[in-house]
């Protein structure tokens, strides 16, 4: 598969994950900010990490599985790669954090945990969907 196709595949899967995670961002807003006092763009709390997790999952799939197609990936390994992608996304803010270290008003731990869990589940669901789409009995 050419590099351009791989990039397109990663961006496409990232967009699918972003759309699937959007409701979780909205739900997080209702749970953590029911009165709307925080200035967080809650839908984006689901969209951005969903997109980045999907792209990281594709990157890990290509690096670890060395070109093995998604539909051939065992579900357990898909889960592990998805969780690893989630951990990479969770690590990003800490790589670019400011040095001030002020008090956090943002519910960090529950949201970061949700990112890792959603990433693992999304990887398993993506693998399962890829199998169904590639199976001989699947409709075109």
How is this structure best described in words?
By secondary structure, the chain is an all-alpha fold. The protein has one domain. 73% of the residues lie in helices and 0% in strands. It contains four helices and no strands. It has helices at residues 3-32, 42-65, 75-95, 108-134. The chain is elongated and about 50 Å long. The model has no long low-confidence stretch (mean pLDDT 85).
Residue stretches low in confidence (pLDDT < 50, at least 5 long) are none
The general outline is elongated
On the 0 to 100 scale, the average pLDDT is 85
Number of helices: 4
Biggest beta-sheet profile:
none
Please give the number of β-strands.
0
> How do the SSEs run, as a string of H and E?
HHHH
Q: How many angstroms separate the termini?
A: 22 Å
Radius of gyration using CA atoms only: 17 Å
Oligomeric composition of the shown chains: single chain
Q: What structural category do the secondary elements indicate?
A: mainly alpha
Percent helix range:
over 70%
What proportion strand? under 5%
Task: Write a brief structural summary.
The chain is mainly α and 140 residues long. It has one domain. The protein is built from four helices and no strands.
Keywords summarizing the entry:
mainly alpha; 4 helices
Layout of secondary structure:
Elements: H1 3-32, H2 42-65, H3 75-95, H4 108-134
């Amino acid at each position: 598969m050419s590099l351009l196709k791989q990039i397109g595949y990663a961006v496409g899967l990232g967009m699918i994950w972003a759309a699937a995670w959007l409701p979780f961002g909205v739900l997080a807003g209702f749970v953590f900010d029911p009165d709307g006092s925080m200035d967080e763009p809650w839908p984006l709390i689901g969209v951005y990490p969903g997109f980045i997790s999907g792209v990281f999952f594709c990157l890990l799939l290509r690096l670890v599985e060395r070109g093995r197609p998604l539909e051939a990936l065992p579900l357990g390994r898909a889960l592990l790669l998805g969780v690893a992608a989630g951990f990479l996304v969770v690590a990003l803010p800490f790589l670019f954090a400011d040095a001030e270290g002020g008090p956090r008003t943002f519910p960090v731990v529950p949201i970061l945990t949700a990112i890792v869990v959603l990433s693992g589940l999304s990887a398993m669901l993506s693998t399962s969907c890829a199998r169904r789409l590639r199976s001989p009995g699947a409709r075109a």
